[in-house]
Amino acid sequence: MGISLPRNVPEEGIFHQDTRFLSHYELRVNSSAPLLLSSSIARDNTILNVHLSNPSGAGNEAHNNIHIARSIYLWQGTQHERLKIKNYGAEAKSLLVQYVYDSDFADIFEVRGQRPHRRGKRLNTKTDTSSVTMQYRGRDQCLRTTRIAFDPAPQTVSPNSCTYLITIKSRETICLYISVLCDGDGCCTAGAFICFRVAGLAPPPARQAPDCRTHLYVQRVV
After folding, report:
1. Contact predicate 153/130, CB 8 Å
2. Is residue 150 part of a domain?
3. Confidence at residue 191, expressed as pLDDT on a 0 to 100 scale
4. Is 10 in a helix, a strand, or coil?
5. Which of 14, 27, 90, 123 has the greatest number of C-beta atoms within 10 Å?
6. Residues 93, 212 contacting (CB under 8 angstroms)
7. Cis peptide before 159 (omega within 30 of 0)
8. Which pLDDT tens digit goes with each residue over 111-161?
9. Which domain, by its residues, includes 85?
């Protein structure tokens, strides 16, 4: 699916301040994983670019008409993603685009195999029309949150998935923007949501140090 954080690979995820803030993250198109065409990292090592196509098979359109491009970078405790979909076919297409997500808020020692004596408490997940916020109160009483914001708003948002129902015309391009904000201090700030639409796909300024506290760790691009 481009980048995949599957449930069955325990060491992968998005880590911030020694905690895994996102343990499961999948893109699905028409209820299936899209087909990987290629992937690359920008020369300055800031942006991951992944090229995909819609899945083929029973119930799906031929996969050579829809191009899906994911551009992803990390900045200021946030993963920013632009999902660009273009229809190269002669007719309009209908697509079901879903993101599936979860967070276990495991610390780095737990991820490496050490079983904690006891864990903190996972709080209720909050949703609204354009975002989902997963919450965890640690044993240190610090509130850790993972907020995923969607622009434009999906048709549905639930605690573990969101759904877009898209009709894309011939030669039309549609862009979706997704931000995953990791907050380990209990003080989320709106200013952290610098999205591709505002930034114009620009990486962080070269004169500033990169955000070394946030890491996207996947063993492979699949």
Report:
1. yes
2. yes
3. 36
4. coil
5. 14
6. no
7. no
8. 877 776 678 899 999 999 999 999 999 888 889 999 999 999 999 999 999
9. 13-201
Provide mean pLDDT across the span 41-70.
Answer: 80
Q: Where are the beta strands (DSSP E) in the chain?
A: 13-16, 19-22, 24-29, 35-41, 48-53, 66-75, 78-87, 93-102, 121-127, 131-137, 143-151, 156-157, 161-168, 173-183, 214-217
**Sheet-wide strand order for 78-87:** 35-41, 48-53, 66-75, 78-87, 173-183, 143-151, 131-137, 121-127
Q: Kindly report whether the global pTM for this prediction surpasses the value 0.85.
A: no
Which residues 6+ apart lie within 8 Å of 54 measured at CB?
29, 30, 34, 35, 60, 61, 63, 65, 66, 68, 95
CATH number at residue 110: 2.70.98.40
Question: Residue 145's pLDDT is what?
Answer: 94
Asked if the structure places residue 177 within a domain, the reply is yes
* pLDDT greater than 80 at residue 76: yes
Rounded mean pLDDT, 46-54: 92
Q: What pLDDT was estimated at residue 97?
A: 97
Domain assignment present for 84:
yes
Asked if residue 206 belongs to a domain, the reply is: no
Q: How many domains does the chain have?
A: 1
Helix (H) and strand (E) counts in the chain:
2, 15
